[in-house]
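In the design runs reported in the main text, the only information available to the sequence generator was the tokenized backbone. The following block is the verbatim input for one such run; it is reproduced so that readers can re-run the procedure and compare outputs position by position.
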């Protein structure tokens, strides 16, 4: 039986999460960052398991209580311990006033994973399906491991005079956000306020990769990645029409893989693809681009939900659906993902 205790030291927490193979969404820094946006991080662990719960009051609905959520958690050395940790986390969440708890462990879809008292919600907050690229030992090995067409794209960008590099310049971040907004208008995805991305870069182990013509200031493409432990994650990307024609995004991704290698990373998570890709899917173009880097597909179980106070939980679920609908109408969030 897993017995969880509260952990309040950053170094102890991150060491435990890294040892158990947890993602950046279970890191101390992610909890602090989400704390700026209405969530309270509660970190629970033992020798064999860890789970960072994010807790917040329910959206205005007339229903008292809170929601508890564990992104990419719990983490543990084996599936049965993950299940036990989820059950233990649910009891802690009940004590914190939560009426329901959502967990999203990175357990394989085909593993038959079950957690006591939890059921599949049919949606996920974090991408349930993704592509993971192996980070190689050096640049030449990394380039050779890419599919032929992708190697061509990287080399073509260089021939066109495109250079890509990691930037810590605040002006580049503002220019990237300009490009991100342009890309969002073109592709129809929701954006957060600019200050969110500024805080993201300040608070998290984030790196900005930018591409431009050598000697020019104007950005043609860019990406934001996170690194934690032995993993890196591609969170945000942007490109101009001109950048697309010059294969700038190919070079950005190659530089991101290089930056990941310099950080000691072994896995580069492309962060989300459609679980059932088809030409009519809104992420079809994103899927086709990410697939060019030859990653291995990983499919997780998605969100598992447990109602801790059933009557209030059902009213809360209706309130949450209404909240996300309002956010979509405002263009702020697409809400939970559905396959």
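Verbatim output:
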């Amino acid at each position: 039986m897993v017995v969880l205790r509260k952990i309040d030291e950053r170094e102890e927490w991150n060491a435990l999460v890294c040892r158990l193979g947890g993602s950046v969404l279970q890191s101390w820094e992610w909890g602090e960052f989400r704390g700026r946006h209405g969530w309270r991080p509660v970190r629970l662990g033992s020798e064999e398991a860890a789970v960072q719960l994010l807790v917040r009051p329910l959206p205005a609905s007339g229903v008292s209580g809170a929601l508890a959520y564990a992104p990419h958690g719990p983490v543990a050395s084996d599936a049965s311990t993950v299940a036990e940790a989820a059950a233990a986390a649910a009891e802690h969440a009940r004590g914190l006033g939560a009426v329901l708890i959502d967990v999203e462990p990175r357990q394989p879809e085909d593993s038959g994973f079950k957690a006591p008292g939890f059921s599949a919600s049919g949606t996920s907050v974090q991408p349930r399906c993704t592509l993971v690229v192996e980070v190689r030992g050096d640049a030449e090995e990394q380039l050779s491991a890419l599919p032929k067409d992708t190697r061509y794209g990287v080399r073509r960008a260089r021939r066109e005079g495109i250079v890509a590099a990691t930037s810590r310049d605040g002006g580049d971040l503002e220019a990237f956000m300009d490009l991100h907004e342009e890309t969002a208008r073109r592709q129809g995805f929701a954006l957060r306020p600019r200050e969110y991305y500024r805080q993201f870069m300040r608070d998290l182990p984030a790196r900005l990769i930018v591409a431009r013509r050598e000697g020019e200031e104007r950005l043609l493409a860019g990406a934001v990645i996170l690194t934690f432990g032995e993993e890196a994650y591609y969170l945000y990307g942007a490109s101009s029409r001109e950048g697309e024609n010059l294969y700038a995004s190919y070079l950005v991704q190659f530089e991101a893989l290089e930056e990941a290698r310099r950080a000691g990373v072994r896995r580069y998570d492309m962060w989300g693809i459609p679980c059932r890709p088809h030409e009519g899917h809104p992420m079809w173009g994103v899927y086709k681009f990410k697939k060019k880097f030859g990653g291995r597909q990983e499919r997780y179980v998605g969100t598992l939900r447990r109602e801790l106070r059933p009557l209030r939980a059902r009213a809360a679920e209706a309130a949450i659906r209404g909240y996300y609908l309002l956010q979509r109408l405002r263009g702020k969030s697409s809400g939970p993902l559905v396959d």
